[in-house]
């Protein structure tokens, strides 16, 4: 059986009552409205609001403006300007053209913004201030005491839904859409459905903005600041404003709400609730969620900030380096001495390509070069440390043995040369010069007090770059140091060569590629 539980705490409430006698609304000496049919709305935590019938407004009202606000108990409010003889007061009045059942009493009525009128003559009426009391119970207690112990948004979403059910809210489906800062995904959509023990998590790419399913969805409507959405799904006057409404009704849903869940940076995320109780959501239970939405949003904001930080660090400095920075290696000088193979991969003919292709096409080609090199480096247990102009600096740490790190670097280099040489339809084949050296380097933070760079410093890093330059000038695609020779197999000795900014001649080898 699915029933609404009765809360022992004072819940959220909303009611409208008629006022007695004549009520007048003024702006200075201008009479805006006069009526004997005014109504007052009392709503938890809000001051009493007086509404007058639209036909009793004495001044002109402008067309509906773009401003809309959402209330899960009253519906979506539409705003209009006051058009007076000597001034225009923007968004001064609002109406609920299709109020929700809890607020049917204000249909056809107009409310005035506090700054739109100077005084209101209530005649014999006296407005009461409601005692807001307090809202408590399983959901609030959990948010205040135990929710902070949860370490993932999926686990939080599951616990949130369970606490809503425990509190007596007849929720059958809960969704949270959180927008993110990520180079590939637009955000995360967490969905809980009653009867399932796991959360469904979707990570749409930025193409979602052009997808018809998103274009005609409550998520887009709310995220774009167009107000929230509430639709009863089991009445005679039901209307499917969005395709998902019909889908949910077919699955037995009776009520649907999509409300804004703003973050502190101004982004608007979305919290959606679907009900399966025959009477839909109660005002008290839905009011509880509405009151808790800001706190719920802060939890998701903390989760999202952690994910954003990890994603941005991985994007700009690499996965291993990002993990070290998040782990606390953030001071200048923090770092370790490690043994690693260092690769320096430089695109050949970049100046000529830019002149021939133009800046925009060249940037696209350069991105293709970086993506190819990065994917292959990562596939061989390496990490791209940085892009330097049209070159890539990568490190292959010595995790098991020196031979493993050396072989990973060499295999990656030969694969890079082969892949770039294949080209793609509509783009030219690419060529590169790669230098590889092995040795001990310092892997950590260097820079100024305000601007740090996580990189590798040491002779092996300098040597890899110089070997790449030497290969570029001698038309050898891969040139390696003496340390790499044991894993080379078929290679050509170049003898001891003099390299720029290297004091002693270096024995090196060219790899057939």
Helices and strands, with pairings:
Blueprint (H helix, E strand, L loop, with lengths): L13 E5 L4 E5 L2 E6 L3 E5 L5 E5 L6 E2 L6 E4 L3 E9 L4 E8 L13 E4 L6 E3 L16 H8 L7 H14 L4 E9 L7 E7 L6 E3 L9 H4 L2 H6 L5 E4 L10 H8 L4 E8 L5 E8 L7 H35 L1 H8 L8 E13 L2 H8 L1 H21 L3 E6 L2 E7 L4 H21 L9 E16 L4 E6 L1 H16 L3 E4 L9 E7 L8 E6 L2
Parallel strand pairs: 21-23
Antiparallel strand pairs: 1-4, 2-3, 2-11, 4-5, 5-10, 6-8, 7-8, 8-9, 9-10, 12-13, 12-17, 13-14, 15-16, 16-17, 18-20, 18-21, 19-20, 21-22, 23-25, 24-25
Helix pairs in contact: 6-7, 8-9, 9-10
Report on this structure.
The chain has 513 residues and is α+β, with helices and mostly antiparallel strands. The protein is built from eleven helices and 25 strands. The strands form four sheets. Strands 1, 4, 5, 6, 7, 8, 9 and 10 form an eight-stranded antiparallel β-sheet that branches. Strands 18, 19, 20, 21, 22, 23, 24 and 25 form an eight-stranded mixed β-sheet that branches. Strands 14-13-12-17-16-15 form a six-stranded antiparallel β-sheet. The N terminus is likely disordered. Pfam families: Guanylate_cyc (PF00211), NTP_transf_9 (PF04248). This is DUF427 domain-containing protein.
């Amino acid at each position: 059986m699915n029933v609404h539980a009765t809360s022992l705490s004072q819940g959220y409430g909303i009611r409208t009552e008629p006022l007695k006698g004549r009520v007048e609304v003024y702006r200075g000496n201008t009479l805006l409205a006069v009526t004997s049919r005014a109504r007052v709305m009392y709503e938890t935590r809000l001051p009493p609001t007086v509404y007058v019938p639209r036909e009793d407004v004495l001044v002109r009202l402008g067309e509906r403006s773009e401003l809309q606000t959402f209330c899960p108990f009253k519906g979506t409010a539409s705003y209009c300007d006051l058009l007076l003889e000597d001034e225009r007061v923007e968004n001064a009045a609002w109406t609920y053209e299709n109020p929700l059942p809890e607020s049917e009493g204000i249909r056809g009525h107009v409310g005035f913004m506090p700054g739109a009128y100077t005084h209101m003559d209530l005649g014999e009426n006296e407005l009461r201030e409601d005692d807001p009391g307090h809202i408590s119970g399983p959901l609030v207690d959990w948010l205040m005491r135990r929710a902070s112990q949860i370490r993932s948004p999926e686990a939080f979403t599951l616990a949130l839904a369970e606490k809503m059910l425990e509190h007596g809210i007849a929720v059958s489906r809960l969704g949270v859409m959180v927008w993110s800062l990520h180079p590939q995904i637009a955000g995360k959509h967490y969905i809980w459905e009653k009867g399932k023990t796991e959360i469904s998590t979707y990570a749409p790419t930025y193409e979602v903005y052009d997808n018809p399913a998103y274009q005609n969805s409550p998520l887009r409507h709310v995220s774009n600041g167009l107000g929230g959405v509430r639709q009863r799904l089991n009445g005679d006057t039901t209307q499917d404003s969005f395709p998902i409404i019909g889908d949910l009704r077919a699955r037995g849903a009776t009520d649907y709400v999509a409300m804004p869940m703003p973050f502190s940076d101004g982004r608007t995320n979305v919290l959606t609730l679907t009900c399966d109780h025959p009477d839909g959501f109660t005002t008290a239970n839905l009011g509880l969620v509405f009151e808790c939405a800001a706190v719920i949003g802060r939890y998701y904001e903390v989760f999202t900030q952690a994910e954003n930080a990890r994603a941005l660090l991985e994007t700009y400095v690499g996965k291993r380096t990002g993990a070290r920075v998040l782990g606390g290696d953030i001071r200048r000088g923090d770092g370790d001495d490690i043994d690693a193979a260092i690769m320096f991969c430089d695109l050949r003919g970049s100046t000529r390509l830019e002149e021939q292709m133009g800046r925009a096409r060249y940037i696209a080609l350069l991105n293709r070069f970086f993506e190819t090199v990065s994917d292959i480096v990562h596939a061989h247990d390496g990490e791209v440390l940085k892009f330097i102009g049209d070159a890539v600096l990568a490190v292959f740490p010595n995790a098991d043995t020196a031979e493993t790190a050396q072989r990973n670097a060499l295999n990656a280099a030969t694969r890079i040369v082969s892949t770039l040489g294949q080209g793609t339809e509509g783009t030219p084949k690419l060529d590169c010069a790669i230098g590889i050296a092995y040795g001990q380097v310092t892997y950590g933070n260097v820079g100024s007090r305000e601007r740090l760079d996580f990189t590798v410093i040491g002779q092996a890093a300098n040597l890899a770059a110089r070997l790449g330059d030497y290969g570029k000038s001698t038309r050898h695609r891969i040139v390696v140091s003496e340390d790499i020779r044991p894993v080379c197999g078929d290679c050509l000795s170049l003898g001891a060569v003099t390299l720029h900014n290297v004091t002693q001649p270096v024995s090196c080898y060219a790899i057939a590629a």
